[in-house]
């Protein structure tokens, strides 16, 4: 058998197996961003000092948080996609 | 070892007079390198000592320096430093210019507290023999003093969550067979936590003096303040009753001061800070 096909199969299965983990990670990152920048959505924020000090490190979390806000409308769609329904 | 004194009390009860009187007498207790700092926006140390101050530390006599902090300047410094850090991290933010907004940002909730806290932290960690801090009126003073605890509380939760994120990332990179880089954010969080804990510890090690006047308003405020201090695990070492003898001393003995040493100062006519000093022997003994 062509070894390339084996590689493709193995990558496919690996990706399937990490999908849930990635979803969970994205959710945690988004929660982290939310906690720090909750004033963006109107929650009481932690001390400004902390949010400003940590801001430079948080590009990824902020991205995850904003992405999640966009997906909010279709969270059901995302879950069905994740569990391969429909 | 450096000693720090934090003086708390309602506006106008005599915090600054007490601070000056204590500083003047402290050299007797062998504390020759004295630094008196006023955080009170209504500065009056200069008036008490009859010198004009400029918002910078100034030596009034050998081994005695006073500083009426220019809080507006401190806020500006804090905001400018933050602006510089943000610009350094996001180089593409060419339009980012905080300068034009500093006036309005300085009115944001928490800014005054944070700026004062940063000055207080540097002072506590700084050199010297004796540091006396004349705090602003109770409400603001408590919010400043509580900051290292508030920050620690948030940092605890954030560190827990961050660890969970790092753990997930580790699992992912293991499955995908790639190396895992250190998380700089977790390091930063831990560093901030250690800094907050150190400041909280140093506040805890300071000699806390609460000054009241023998009248209900100031004593009631002291009771409320003691509750807030208790939340931080702090308890004053002394409570000073100032201006005794002018109005009648309330007959009720305030039991929330139980276990705290009392210093009484009678109503003084003229040469206030010198005469006040005569009553401060127990505090000096505690410092020696």
Outline the secondary-structure elements.
The complex is a heterodimer of chains A (86) and B (288).
Chain A: H1 3-36, H2 48-54, H3 59-71, H4 75-82
Chain B: E1 3-9, H1 15-26, E2 34-38, H2 45-49, E3 58-61, E4 64-68, H3 71-89, H4 102-105, H5 111-125, E5 130-134, H6 138-175, H7 184-205, E6 207-212, H8 216-231, E7 238-244, E8 261-266, H9 272-277, H10 281-287
Parallel strand pairs in B: 1-5, 1-6, 2-4, 2-5, 6-7, 7-8
Antiparallel strand pairs in B: 3-4
Helix pairs in contact in B: 3-5, 5-6, 6-7, 6-8
InterPro entries (chain A): DUF7990
Pfam families (chain A): DUF7990
What is the domain tally of chain A?
1
Q: What is the makeup of the main sheet of chain A?
A: none
* Spans where pLDDT lies below 50 across 5 or more residues of chain B: none
Radius of gyration of chain B: 22 Å
Structural class of chain B: alpha/beta
Write the H/E string of chain A, N to C: HHHH
Helix-strand category of chain A:
mainly alpha
Choose one word for the global shape of chain A: elongated
**Main beta sheet of chain B:** 8 strands, mixed
Quick one: which chains have the greatest interface? A-B, 25 and 32 residues
Describe the overall structure.
The complex is a heterodimer of chains A (86) and B (288). With 86 residues, chain A is mainly α. Chain A has one domain (22-82). Chain A has helices at residues 3-36, 48-54, 59-71, 75-82. Chain A is elongated. Chain B is an alpha/beta fold and 288 residues long. Chain B has a domain at 3-69 and 128-147 and 203-287: P-loop containing nucleotide triphosphate hydrolases (Rossmann fold, 3-Layer(aba) Sandwich), CATH 3.40.50.300. An 8-stranded mixed β-sheet of chain B has the order 3-4-2-5-1-6-7-8, with helices on both faces. Classes of the chains: A mainly alpha (86), B alpha/beta (288). Chain A binds chain B through residues 14, 17-18, 21-22, 24-25, 28-29, 31-32, 35-36, 46-50, 52-58, and chain B through 82, 85-86, 88-90, 108, 110-111, 114, 147, 150-151, 154-155, 157-158, 161-162, 164-165, 168-169, 171-172, 175-176, 184-185, 188-189, 192.
């Amino acid at each position: 058998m062509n070894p390339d096909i084996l590689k493709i199969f193995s990558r496919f299965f690996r990706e399937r197996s990490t999908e849930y983990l990635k979803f969970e990670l994205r959710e945690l990152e988004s929660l982290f961003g939310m906690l720090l920048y909750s004033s963006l959505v109107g929650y009481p924020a932690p001390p400004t000092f902390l949010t400003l000090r940590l801001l430079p490190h948080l590009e990824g979390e902020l991205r995850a948080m904003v992405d999640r806000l966009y997906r909010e409308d279709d969270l059901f769609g995302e879950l069905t996609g994740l569990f391969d329904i429909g | 070892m450096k000693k720090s004194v934090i003086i708390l009390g309602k506006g106008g009860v005599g915090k600054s007079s007490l601070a000056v009187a204590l500083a003047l007498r402290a050299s007797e207790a062998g504390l020759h390198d004295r630094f008196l700092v006023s955080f009170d926006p209504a500065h009056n140390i200069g008036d008490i000592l009859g010198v004009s101050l400029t918002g910078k530390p100034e030596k009034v006599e050998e081994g005695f320096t006073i500083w009426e902090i220019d809080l507006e300047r401190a806020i500006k410094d804090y905001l400018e430093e933050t602006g510089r850090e943000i610009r350094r991290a996001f180089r593409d933010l060419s339009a980012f210019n905080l300068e034009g907004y500093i006036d309005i940002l300085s009115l944001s909730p928490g800014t005054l507290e944070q700026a004062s806290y940063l000055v207080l932290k540097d002072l506590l960690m700084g050199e010297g023999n004796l540091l006396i801090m004349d705090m602003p009126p109770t409400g603001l003073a408590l919010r400043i003093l509580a900051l290292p605890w508030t920050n620690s509380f948030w940092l605890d939760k954030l560190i827990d969550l961050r660890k969970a994120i790092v753990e997930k990332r580790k699992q992912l990179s293991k499955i995908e067979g790639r190396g895992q880089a250190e998380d700089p954010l977790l390091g930063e969080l831990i560093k901030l936590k250690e800094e907050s804990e150190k400041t909280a510890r140093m506040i805890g090690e300071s000699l806390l003096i609460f000054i009241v006047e023998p009248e209900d308003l100031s004593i009631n405020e002291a009771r409320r303040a003691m509750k807030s201090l208790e939340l931080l695990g702090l308890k004053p070492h002394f409570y000073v009753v100032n201006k005794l003898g002018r109005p009648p001393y309330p007959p009720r003995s305030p039991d929330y001061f139980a276990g705290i040493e009392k210093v009484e100062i009678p109503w003084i006519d003229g040469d206030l800070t010198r005469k006040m000093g005569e009553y401060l022997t127990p505090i000096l003994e505690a410092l020696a």
